[in-house]
Design brief:
heterodimer, A: 2 domains, globular, B: about 130 residues, mainly alpha, 6 helices
Chain lengths: ~230, ~130
């Protein structure tokens, strides 16, 4: 009876929600990207599944409702994109060019490094979606037959690395323009970077949201063609 | 008292319905044309074009979207947790992966920033003339 319950959505759903809620609380208290809700929440869920000896497959299949909401969430990305579109009118083609180049460059560099280090094909496929916001990356992973969990893990880790290293790296390069920082964070560190950019300034956050949305849409249009060819 | 709540609920439901409709139409288009692109991304582009024509964001849609995007980490939590259960990767795979992500992200950030700075300076010079 109890065992059945542990393997049903009645357990999986509250577990996810409570882990996420605790993650958000912790993130707000600490204010560091290292403790982004997805990092703490996934560790927490893993610990509980491990302790209760629930197979991951069961947890995954009883979370179908959350997976189903990812599609509408991708569509919802159009709203911040529309609200920040005015920035393009002001900063113009340099922004667009950088986003197009960045969308190709970010995955290409990572794939080349992993290839040189001798990574397997499944790793290379999952890496190609590294800089895209997670919901689009997951939708894309399904299309190019990359492993969903690996893709999600790579995307989250990329976001944390980019959001942590981006601001000090740009300061080191002598760049103090919030627009540049925002666009770079949006391209390379997607949602985690955008959250960090919003803490820096509203303009920085808007640029990041714009870059993240355009970069994600663009990658989803181009990557399947490159990989399919 | 009753009408504003009712209106909010209706706006909210319309927002949800818009998102779902865009996703459905997007999936339909990719299926019919056999495109390799995710249907939800086509739906997002459709909605973006629709909003640009409409010239704004309806309130209900804005509310539903911001709620959904706030919950985003929760939505991909099951997928992200799976990374701890991956057993079919070798140690060298993991090493290549971590190196590629860390080093690759740093290089790509640097290159993007330098490119954008150079391009912005160019247009800045064009404005001065």
């Amino acid at each position: 009876m109890i065992v059945d319950l542990l393997h049903s959505p009645l357990f999986a759903l509250p577990l996810s929600i409570i882990a996420f809620w605790l993650g958000v609380l912790l993130y707000r208290r600490s204010g560091t990207v290292l403790l982004h809700p997805i990092v703490t929440a996934s560790l927490l869920v893993f610990a509980i599944l491990y302790a209760l000896e629930i197979p991951y497959r069961d947890y995954q299949s009883s979370s179908a409702l959350l997976y189903a909401l990812l599609g509408p969430a991708v569509v919802a990305l159009a709203i911040p994109l529309k609200q920040n579109l005015a920035i393009i009118r002001r900063a113009g083609w340099p922004l667009l060019v950088t986003i197009v180049v960045g969308a190709l460059l970010a995955p290409a560099i990572a794939v080349v490094i992993a290839f040189l280090l001798g990574a397997g094909e499944s790793v290379l496929l999952a890496l190609s979606g590294k800089s895209i916001t997670t919901p689009i990356a997951l939708a894309l992973a399904e299309k190019i037959h990359a492993a969903l969990s690996l893709t999600a893990g790579i995307v989250v880790f990329t976001g944390v690395v980019g959001a942590l290293a981006g601001p000090p790296l740009l300061r080191g390069l002598g760049i103090r323009d919030d627009r540049i920082l925002g666009v770079v964070l949006g391209i390379n560190a997607h949602a985690v970077g955008t959250a960090r950019a919003l803490e820096i300034s509203a303009l920085c956050g808007a640029c990041a949201a714009l870059a993240m949305g355009l970069c994600g849409a663009l990658s989803a249009l181009i990557l399947p063609l490159i990989i399919g060819a | 008292m009753k009408t504003p709540i009712l209106r909010n609920v209706i706006q909210w439901l319309l927002g949800i319905a818009t998102l779902l409709a865009c996703e459905c139409i997007g999936s339909l288009i990719t299926d019919v044309l056999a495109l390799p692109i995710p249907g939800s991304v086509v739906g997002m582009l459709l909605l973006l074009v629709g909003l640009m024509i409409y010239g704004g964001v309806p309130r209900g849609l804005a509310k539903v979207s911001s709620q959904l995007l706030f919950l985003l980490p929760l939505l991909f939590l099951p997928a992200a947790t799976g990374v701890f259960f991956l057993r079919n990767l070798t140690l060298s795979d993991w090493f290549a992966l971590l190196a590629a992500i860390t080093v690759g992200t740093l290089i790509s950030i640097t290159l993007c920033a330098l490119l954008l700075r150079r391009l912005l300076r160019k247009t800045g010079a064009a404005h001065d003339r």
